Amino acid sequence: MRNAILATLLAVGLSACASTQKVMLGAARPAISPQQVQVYQAPPRRYEEIARLDSSSAVGFGTQGQTNAAIDRLVREAAALGANGVLLLGVDTVGSPVSLGVGGGSFGRSGGVSVGAGVPTAQRRAAGIAIHVIEP
Questions:
Q1: Which of 32, 95, 109, 120 sits at 20 to 30 Å (Cα–Cα) from 15?
Q2: Domain positions in the chain
Q3: Keywords on this record (predicted)?
């Protein structure tokens, strides 16, 4: 029972760490499907800026899946703002505010001993600008 409670608390804590923030730079448009949003690494010829977006993945070990999740968050937020593109500014890895650890111990009559180990975790962060690309 205790292990189930700890596992549930850990899962909730890890998923709560993923987030997206936005700063509006222009007017939002009607929402579109995320599948219609294209990710750009270089600016297209003509576009309008809608918002600055910053997102982070859930806690993990700095995997490609975390990078994909952070970029997917940018795309979903851009689509909600009606942007048909995201100009990717960068992706980086940061130490997580959550530390995964295991511990064990033994306590006797004359005192106690406790042993623990922590596993370093990381989050992937992505930054971009939600844009509306203007066709020539």
A1: 32
A2: 17-97+119-133
A3: Signal
